[in-house]
From TrEMBL:
Coiled-coil residues: none
InterPro entries reported in the protein's UniProt record: Aminoglycoside_PTrfase (IPR002575), Kinase-like_dom_sf (IPR011009)
Domain Aminoglycoside phosphotransferase: 156-243
Protein name: Phosphotransferase
A Pfam family matched in the record: APH
């Protein structure tokens, strides 16, 4: 049995997976998109089409533009075609040529160097549409959206946001440059070549003009087992050690935990039963609790603007 999927422009994709969906991102198990693998003009492709819930919070024009530009530069999968109106991306199918990165990869020096290097190269991209929002901006927008949706939120979210507001003020006082960055630190959005170990970045939904240390921060909290490990990784990425900049990075990473948790809560409200978002959002909120509770976070906060 062969399933047909009609794409934008009247094209038809023959699905070789008999309609069984595959993963766009293992963190969500592709819950933000309708996804399907198949052949288009005899080329193996992977189609992503944003769900209605995802389209409500993703800046689709910016995400599509970043994906296209990254693909053309060899930093992401090649884009066969795209359609902003339908939220559709037709990408080269990497299933046979690449595997998904895991935390175990982060234990190897070769991967770590390659990972930081490809993330920094994003700054050279010039997409036609660019999102401009920090993680703190995203948290404010998600807070508004959660209230609008009448979604239940944990009482501690107020405390998290108060601490992060303080961190944002301290970071702004130090001033920072804005550059295009991928913005998502989840290793499930990294593909590793099965032949030479080279990397590609997936899922450009959070790509934006941001402080480069925000991008480093979300990567650090994903890779590092503890603060001591984060110090080592920071020095690898930055080339030297700086106490204040590490504190800035870590707070950006902690803010990302809160952002991802709030995103999970929002999609739960917009699309009840979307358990992939729910479980990942709950995990991120647990990480936020561990990072922002107690006196340790206050000490780290004071380091930002020393």
């Amino acid at each position: 049995m062969t399933t047909k999927l009609e794409l934008s422009g009247g094209r038809v994709l023959s699905d070789r997976m008999d309609g069984t969906p595959t993963m766009a991102s293992p963190s969500w198990w592709g819950a933000d998109t309708l996804r399907i693998r198949g052949r288009l003009d005899d080329v193996a492709v992977h189609v992503r089409r944003y769900t209605d819930a995802a389209r409500s919070y993703v800046n689709v024009p910016a995400a599509v533009a970043a994906t296209e530009t990254a693909g053309a530069a060899g930093l992401g999968p090649a884009v066969v075609s795209s359609d902003v109106a339908s939220g559709e991306l037709v990408l080269a199918d990497l299933t046979e040529t690449h595997r998904t990165a895991t935390l175990a990869d982060g234990n190897t020096a070769e991967f770590v160097h390659s990972y930081f290097e490809i993330r920094s190269r994003v700054g050279d991209l010039k997409p036609t549409v660019v999102r401009e929002a920090t993680v703190f901006d995203d948290i404010r927008e998600l807070g508004f959206r959660l209230g609008e949706a009448g979604a239940p939120v944990p009482a501690e979210l107020t405390y998290f946001r108060r601490v992060l507001d303080d961190a944002e003020k301290r970071i702004k006082a130090t001033d920072f440059d804005r550059e295009l960055r991928h913005g998502d630190g989840n290793l499930s959005n990294v593909m590793v070549s099965r032949t030479d170990g080279s990397l590609l970045l997936l899922d450009w939904d959070l790509a934006a003009m941001i402080d480069p240390f925000q991008d480093l921060g979300v990567a650090l909290v994903e890779l590092a087992e503890d603060e001591a490990h984060a110090r080592e990784l920071f020095e690898v990425a930055y080339g030297s050690f700086d106490e204040a900049l590490l504190a800035r990075c870590l707070f950006y990473g902690y803010a990302d935990h809160v952002r991802q948790g709030m995103l999970g809560m929002l999609v739960d409200a917009l699309d009840p039963g979307s358990f992939e978002y729910s479980k990942f959002g709950d995990w991120q909120l647990l990480r936020a609790r561990l990072a922002l509770s107690g006196t340790r976070s206050g000490e780290l906060l004071r380091r930002i603007d020393r």
